[in-house]
Every structure is written in C-alpha cells, then in structure tokens.
Amino acid sequence: MMLFLKLSLLTLIISAPGLIVSRENMITCYSHVQRLTCETGLIKVKSSVYGRTNSITCNTNRPSSEVTNTNCALRITTIADRCNGLKECELKTELLGNPDPCYGTYKYYNTTYDCINGHLVVICEQGYSTLDCGSDSIEIINANYGRGNSRTCSNGIPSFQTQNTNCYAPNTLSTVAAMCKGKKTCTVEASNTIFNDPCFGTVKYLTVSYICTREIVTCESSTATLNCGAHRIKIISANYGRTDSTTCSSGRPASQISNKNCYTPDALNKIAARCEGQSSCEVPATNVVFSDPCYGTYKYLTIVYSCV
Ligand SMILES: *[C@@H]1O[C@H](CO)[C@@H](O)[C@H](O)[C@H]1NC(C)=O
After folding, report:
1. pLDDT one-digit tens code per residue, 140-194
2. Cα of 110 to ligand 1 centre, how many Å?
C-alpha cells in the first residue's frame, strides 16, 4: 500500500460549475506530511477525519492488531483552520495536536476538499496590502498571521528565522473579518501590533483569502434580479422571511412586520438550483416559490451571491 494516495474524484462538480473548480481527497498515514494543493483556485476543506475506517489503508508493515479496528473516526477542524484559502498547504500531522480517538490503532488522516474560486493575498511582515472588491463586498474565507512554510517571505532571511513552520496567531481570522467584512476595500497590515506575535524570533507573513459578494433585498411579491455579466452566479447565503422590523416596512401595519424570527431553511438550495452557474437569473419573492414560512408577516428575500 502506498503511503500517500491522491484520488482525484470526479473533477467537475456539475451542479456548481461556478465556484467549485474541483474536488480532491487526500489520505495521509499518521506522522507523515499531509499536502493539499489546488492547481486552480483555493483550498476549502469539506471534511477531515482522523482515525481508521477500513483495514487496508495505511497497513504496510503493521500488525493486524493495529489495523482491525475500523470503527474509529474523529472529525477534526485543525486542517481546515490552517489550509482553507491557501493554494497549497503542508502539515506535519504529528503537530496537529489532535487527541487519540482509538489508542493502539494505527490511524490516518482523510481530508476531502474543494478547490474554489477566490482571491489570496500574501503579505510579508511589515507590509500592507489592500483587498479590493470594486463595487462588491468583501467576505473573508480565512486568514493567518504566522508561518506555515519556510519558503514564503524568505528571500535574504537567515534560515533560523524561517524554520518554525507551525506558527499561527489564533485570532487572525476574527480580527481580519472584523476589519474587512462587508467593505468594498480594506487595507490590512502584517504586523505584531495588530496580531500578537505568535512566534517571537520567526519572520512572519499574513495570508488573507476572500471572495467578493453582493447582496440584494427584494420585498415580498417583487422579483429579485441577479446579474453577473460575463461571470457566473454562485449563491453564498439566502433567506425568505423577516429578521428585522425596518426592511420592507413602509406602509405596513405593525402586525405584519413585528416577527423578526422568520426563516426559510432551504432558501439557499432553492435559489442555487435555479441560478447557480447562470450569468443572470430572476427569483420571485413569493410564497409560491418558497412556501410561506410565517403566515401573516410581510416578508422579503435576501440573497448574497458572488460572480465567479
Ligand atoms: C475518506 O473520507 C471520504 C469522505 O468521508 C470517504 O468517502 C472515504 O471512504 C474515506 N476513505 C478512507 C480510505 O477512509
């Protein structure tokens, strides 16, 4: 059995030709290096499981006692936290710090991921860069200040300052999202004054990945028009209902706008089925399309989408 298997699953996901470029799977036997890459697009992990769910994978030179338990699967997020939004990502699995889900069994890491369209910015320490969505809004996919490999931002730097490749400032994503989410442009700085120094003595860099989105709000019984020109529509989120009392409220009695807890759980799927992959698309904001989620309330349709 090979130590590293790379199975390229059905490369084109037909239902979402816009955002997902390809879907990949990577198996890595415990203590080895897991490498995820996207030839086109950015990594977005769908699932990472640490454990053993069959007896054949990673069984080379292992006694049967270590490979017979096939009922061991711990879902982990550490790989997504570190790799999402990057074009390539190498992790020494021993350093992930996951708890042992089945002592005595030889385990492997099984990660399934998509390559999605998006922007990636890499800023070396003490640099600045501006995320720019033109007339659209910034939606951050992931961010890290630290160092995940020794190559990035290393030109002319002594090697002892780039050797620590397991350096992650824990609050980078929330900090960058708080600064940039929803804005059209946003300048970010790779610096210890913004992110607490996660590894003193190591030269660091900031990676930020993002997509550009637009939001349209359509009052009940009107029709939403999504338009991506030469690009294709990808639906990010959607709701038909009411979550505040001000939107689409003019001329309405209080009884029709006081419910702020009205949601259509499958709105996203319905709109995606109708619009995704098209260059333009119309969605009526009506009970006929969505079924009435809150009878008696005057509703509106909110759609966040991206042109990819
Ligand atoms: C890896 O995970 C995927 C998705 O959960 C699953 O379909 C596949 O069988 C797993 N592969 C192995 C070798 O465990």
Report:
1. 999 999 999 999 999 999 999 999 999 999 999 999 999 999 999 999 999 999 9
2. 6
What CATH number does residue 42 fall under? 2.60.120.740
- Indicate which residue's Cα is closest to atom 13 of ligand 1: 57
Exposure string of 45-75, with b = 16+ CB inside 10 Å and e = fewer, is: beebbbbbeeeebbbeeeeeebbebeebeee
pLDDT tens-digit series, residues 221-279: 999 999 999 999 999 899 999 999 999 999 999 999 999 999 999 999 999 999 998 99
pTM comes to 0.81
> What atom in ligand 1 is closest to the CA of residue 52?
14
Which residues form the domain of 48? 23-116
Q: Are residues 303 and 278 in the same domain?
A: yes
Cα of 23 vs centre of ligand 1, distance in Å, is 13
Q: Could you give the number of structural domains in the chain?
A: 3
What is the 27 CA–ligand 1 centroid distance (Å)? Answer: 8
238 shares a domain with 207: no
Q: How far apart are CA 57 and CA 298, in angstroms?
A: 55
